[in-house]
User: Fold this.
Amino acid sequence: MDKMEEKRGRPCGSIAAILSFLLLHAGHTFAGEPGTPPSQKEFWIPPPGFQGEPVPLREEAWIPPDLSERIQNLTVTDLIDLALLTSPETRASWYRARSAREGLRAEKGAYYPQLDLALDANRIHGSAVGGRFKFDQKTLVPSASLAFTLFDFGKKGAEVEERRQELIAANWNHNATVQDLVLEVQQAYYQYLNARALVQAEESAWKEAQVSLEAAEYRQRAGVATIADVLQARTALSQAELSLETIRGQIQIIRGMIATSLGISPTTDFDVKGELPEELPLDQVTQNIEFLIEEARAKRPDLAATRALASKAEAHIRNVKREGWPVLETSGTLERVYYYDPNLTSDNYAFGVSLRFPLFTGLRHRHEVHEAEEDLEAARSIISDLEQQVTFEVWASYFNVKTASEKVKTSRDLLQSAQRSHETALGRYKAGVGSILELLPAQVALEDARAQSIRAKTDWLLSVAQLEHDIGTLWLPSESQR
Assistant:
């Protein structure tokens, strides 16, 4: 009786072990489920283990030796080269393009025969006639199989064309990423030059305020001016000092922005070369707006990328349609069987040609074709929308350049007038025929005119860079580099 119970208990024990294993496996599978927020107004609190790994700090960007030698005298070209070298955005877009290239090469592998090698080792032990006859067989079977698609009505070509257009789109997107980064660096560079020029302007304003204070103190000692003149001149000097310190703080912030875009620490000891030019080629943009819009439609990399994706959608339609056509394939197999007895072997081979034709797929193929056609229409709509956006961007940038050119001319005349007015007011005040109320407004007007002139030049440089970006010609390689 005990033995029978023991025998009966064995299956129960096995079942219990299996159930325990399944429960343990299920617990391991579903452990640490992320869950959801308790209500719509509460935060989601991640359970233990879902905080993610801490992101390591980015290593300091490696600066090439040739740039390290002139780290205190970097040009805008140096800044762009270094930014392109260290940018994670351009690195990611480059790797995406390389991935698409390998995908195209992998897809082209369908044009070649597929050869497989196999090695099977088997041992068969069996019996027959109620166990009267027993046998034990061991075999070793090396084999080779070859398969090749003879004709598929262009399906492979459509698949390869999809991959090719995907690679073209990835390459254009990389170009767009490069141009975006170049524009970002140029904007930071011109803003830095703008701030540095403003520092020089504010230093000139401070010196002029110092001269005015000295003149007021001299006149006050001579008894031809009151203490009010001195106080007003001293107030103007303090305002000039405050403006100077404010601009100096801004230049450090912009310098940090440049360092961040370069992938280096803001504490790195570097400086840039250059200053805002005295004269600008204001007639640089001579083409009419229609020509620039057409050039943008031909050269904008993001627009070219969307066109490539539309071509990919067209190839996908051809690919899906070809799935409803016959496919002619050939295959062959060659194998040799080795038995336990080394004197026994057998050679087997097979060769065949097959023609497959999808007769009925539950209307799946029909709907897949419709889906691909709708995707193509969506891609064409995206192209149309982006073309309108590109047209507006070029239009706005074009007139921003025109406006900036007029601002440069006007600010130049304003600066000359303010300088003459200040010189006249200062001369009259020193001669004793003018008042402090005449000198200080002229001094403030000169300071504002300098700032407007600097800002006008900066705006022109920024607007030209933006226009080149919107046209798609920013930082294009020269003909000798292509």
About this structure: The two ends are 93 Å apart (CA to CA).
